[in-house]
Amino acid sequence: MSTLQKIHDVPVFMCASEGEAIGDEQDALDLIGDAFHQGAQWVVIPAGRLDERFFQLRTRVAGEIVQKFANYRVGVVVLGDISPHTAASSALRDFVRECNRGRQAWFVADMGELGERLRG
Predict the structure, then answer these.
(1) Distance CA 105, CA 74 (A)
(2) 5: closest CA among 118, 85, 120?
(3) Alpha-carbon distance 118 to 92, whole Å?
(4) Distance from the CA of 22 to the CA of which of 28, 44, 77, 98 falls in 20 to 30 A?
(5) CA–CA separation, 47 vs 38, rounded Å?
(6) How far apart are CA 74 and CA 81, in angstroms?
(7) Tens digit of pLDDT for each residue in 49-60?
(8) What is the dihedral of CA 1, 108, 111, 36, to 10 degrees?
(9) Domains in the chain, start-ordered, CATH in brackets?
């Protein structure tokens, strides 16, 4: 079940780890709507919920989903180990590195890392 949590006074919508794969713009819009409804500034998606196409940049799924969140000014976090994907793709490694430099989309290994990022 998805829940709203406050991490360092930042409202964060936590997607459930179980459920349908998130793999297109409509899925992103559904999450954004849920986040708005609950007053969240960030949406955390467990890496295991993302469709495999998300990790293949040539499909443009990752870019479309991240852009949709940016358009609505809601941050998105991919939570969990994606090292098998980044080990297989230098383009994905670069994408992750660029996202993590900004304030719109982050890839974090665990909740501790997310807490550190939201702290400051």
Answers:
(1) 9
(2) 118
(3) 23
(4) 98
(5) 22
(6) 22
(7) 999 999 999 999
(8) -50
(9) 3-114 (3.30.750)
